[in-house]
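re: ur question from earlier - yeah i can do the single chain one, its not a big deal. heres the input i used so u can compare w yours
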Amino acid sequence: MAASESKSRVGKARTFEDLTVWRKSHELVLKVYETTSEFPREELFGLVAQMRRAAVSVPANIAEGFKKRGNKDKGNFYNIAQGSLEELRYYLVLARDLKYCEEITAVWHLSDEVARMLTALIRSVGRASV
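and the output i got, formated as tokens:
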């Protein structure tokens, strides 16, 4: 990481990429893509597509919310990210139960971490609007 990058990550975020929750959710997307690459081919346009779409929606909505001016708008996009994260978590359970992947623990723990961070972000946005 360049010196200018590390400075922007300390203190107030200048871009969505400065948000730790965005970086963690992006990491989650990469992990979901890696995990689903081993699913049966017949699921390519089914469960694989749904899981990837839900996963990508999390950091995408965080990024979009970051740029919104009003805290209510920010909160709405962060809440949509939470909904997409929960949708992804259901798909993880389904994939495990269908035996498409035996081990979802790493992805699940990462999703837990993102969920906690999103909750904290939404609370902080809510407090800022009071």
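Confidence is low (pLDDT under 50) at residues 1-10. not sure if urs matches, ping me
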